[in-house]
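Course assignment 3, question 2. Fill in each field.
Student: A.L.
Task: Predict the tertiary structure for the chain below.
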Amino acid sequence: LKELELLGLDDNRLSGNIELFQAFTNIKSLYLEDNLLTGTISDALMVSWPNLQELDVSHNLLKGSLPDDFFNHFND
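Answer field:
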């Protein structure tokens, strides 16, 4: 699944740490809204998604702040 570019798992009540999705290194669009995911959107997580263009993780159980350069990631 490392070549996966689009993944939509919204509205599934999935639980676990968001870092489980770090392995999808070619992902461009990731829709994980309305689940029970935990953890934080860290610098390391964002670096693992160099091609990411769309991300929706709303309505989960994530904590912490977004990395300082989070929005710059999408302008590369």
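Instructor remarks: DSSP finds one helix and five strands in the chain. The mean pLDDT is 93.
Grade: pending
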